[in-house]
Amino acid sequence: MQVKAGDLSSSIRLTIPGRATAVRDGLRALLDTLLLRSLPEDGRGTAEIVLSEALNNIVEHAYAHHDGEIEISLQLRHNELLCQISDTGLPMPDGQLPAGVLAPLGAFDDLPEGGFGWHLIRSLSKDLSYHRDGGRNLLSFRLDTQQSPA
């Protein structure tokens, strides 16, 4: 696994196998890049949560029945991290992102698909977009990289 850095370390690209262990190793590699290490702690934590949720969803659902790769592209621009993730797995149900609506308290034994993880992704990202093109799932979003006020 090799992370490819762009000019001045303002962008990185990584391709990983669509397996849980590869997601863990890929996240570790991404978080160790100069680009993500340079973010304020809050921004780095947000990136870790959102990327982890998105990548694990791909492994669990898009690649549930076959193998494939996940391509991750990150670019830092004006206090925002632009994120693009693509895979060749199964499409999202009905070609739509899950709503990410939280289940009522006390119903955690039977969380619906698209529940807590997609709620986190939707809450922490901006301009969340999904579409399918030429057999590829394309997910993109922006993350604020500034620390929250104390």
The CATH superfamily title: Histidine kinase-like ATPase, C-terminal domain
The helix count comes to 4
Largest sheet, if any?
A: 6 strands, antiparallel
Query: In CATH, what is the class?
Result: Alpha Beta
Please tell me the overall pLDDT: 88
Return the CATH architecture: 2-Layer Sandwich
Structural class: alpha+beta
- Record field, number of beta strands: 6
Which stretches are poorly predicted, pLDDT < 50 over at least 5 residues? none
Radius of gyration: 15 Å
| Proportion of residues in β-strands | 25-35%
Distance between the termini: 37 Å
Q: How many domain units?
A: 1
Spatial strand sequence of the major β-sheet: 1-2-3-4-6-5
* Secondary-structure element pattern, one letter each: EEHHHEEHEE
Fill in the CATH topology: Heat Shock Protein 90
Helical content band: 25-40%
Q: What sort of overall outline do the alpha carbons produce when their principal axes are compared?
A: globular
Task: Describe this protein's structure.
The protein has 150 residues and is an alpha+beta fold. It has helices at residues 20-31, 34-37, 41-62, 116-124; strands at residues 4-5, 11-17, 69-77, 80-87, 126-133, 136-144. Strands 1-2-3-4-6-5 form a six-stranded antiparallel sheet, covered by helices on one side. Strand 3 (69-77) and strand 4 form a beta hairpin. The longest helix has 22 residues, at 41-62. The radius of gyration is 15 Å and the shape is globular. This is ATP-binding protein. One of its GO terms (molecular function) is ATP binding.
